[in-house]
Amino acid sequence: MRAAATTGRWGKSRRRLAVAFVPGLALGIVTAARETLAAGFEPTVPAAAAAPGDPPAGMAWIPGGEFSLGCADPRRLPFGGSDPMADARPIHRVKLSGFWSDVHEVTNAQFAAFVTATGYVTVAERPPRAEDFPGAPPENLVAGSIVFAPPAEAVPLRDDSGAAHLRWWSYLPGASWKHPTGPASSTEGRDREPVVHVAYADAEAYAAWAGKRLPTEAEWEFAARGGRSGAVYPWGDEFRPQGNWMANTWQGRFPVENTAADGFAGLAPVGRYPANGYGLFDMSGNVWEWCSDWYRPDTYARAARRGVVLDPAGPADSFDPQEPGQPKRVQRGGSYLCSDQYCSRYIVGTRGKGEVSSGTNHIGFRCVKDP
Ligand SMILES: [Ca+2]
């Protein structure tokens, strides 16, 4: 993948109020959401133990306990998209120990501190080795990363090739965390934006330096749910409660029209949208976040057969039938590129995946820490 990748203002607002308060409509959506997506979920039972002291800087206590992991089929929901999300079922119970979680995604400023302290060079900054890409022309063995480059005209979002996404992703020599949209770009003025173009090893290296680790996907989802059980989003069941934007996602016709109605066409500085029940920001949208589990579509089927497991760490190996030879780790939360037209993985229980050496300009991470 890596080497390949407003009559008047009053009139309008009255109309919006009229729509928002048609009781049957509003209630219908919420009821459908509860019935459709809460099926299979049991209450979250947080662990009784209090936080073990004051939180480390920038972290919040996630109590652990027992909860239902997974996602019901979201296709009949508003903003639910067209993907059944079968890899997020069966919904099953999982038990977790408590842990600290970063309240926001790791930022450019934080990553820069790590690089300054260690001299670390990210995967995207290293020229690909010829032995890793047999047959690749030498001129293609150039350090770089994959950047979102929307086509000028509308394109099919899916086709039989399985590679429709290549219509809006391009491998760009010189792209890296320091140059998020290509060699001419920089992180100047972007200290609070999440770092991007981080491969899995880069995220792991940062975490080790910070005395932290990457979350398992069960930990990530427990944290994202913020104490709620079976809610569609980290904040509840409505995509825009009282008309508010709750996450940085995509509005407009993907991938050619980005209206940025939520305030941001691309990355948003961390913490611009409301926090969830545990005080965590951007658990939906903005950037995808690496988790430590290998990805397999049958992870949940296997796990459900074993009963309630404490602190599951995922399968021993990776397998993605769509790209069988590619080792992939789980990614969670979706990004600013997610919309119901293509990828509705801003829905909290859904699962994503990424080839481990591929960072792009919508993949980042956050860390956790054991008490
Ligand atoms: Ca947006």
Keyword list:
371 residues; alpha+beta; paralog of FGE (formylglycine-generating enzyme); four-stranded mixed sheet; 6 helices; 13 strands; 17% helix; binds calcium ion
What does this structure look like?
With 371 residues, the chain is α+β, with helices and mostly antiparallel strands. 17% of the residues lie in helices and 14% in strands. It has 6 helices and 13 strands. The structure holds calcium ion (CA).
Distinct bound molecules: calcium ion
Radius of gyration based on Cα positions:
20 Å
* Number of spatially distinct domains: 1
Distance between the termini: 37 Å
Going by helix content, strand content and strand pairing, the class is: alpha+beta
CATH homologous superfamily - what is it? paralog of FGE (formylglycine-generating enzyme)
Brief write-up:
The protein is of the alpha+beta class and about 375 residues long. About 15% of the residues lie in helices and about 15% in strands. The protein is globular and about 55 Å long.
List the helices and strands and how they pair.
Elements: H1 9-20, H2 23-37, E1 45-46, E2 59-62, E3 65-69, E4 92-96, E5 99-102, H3 108-118, E6 144-148, E7 169-173, H4 200-209, H5 217-225, E8 288-294, H6 299-305, E9 309-310, E10 328-332, E11 352-355, E12 363-364, E13 368-369
Parallel strand pairs: 4-9, 8-12
Antiparallel strand pairs: 1-3, 2-5, 3-4, 5-13, 6-7, 8-10, 10-11
The structure holds calcium ion.
The site of calcium ion (CA) has 7 residues, from loops.
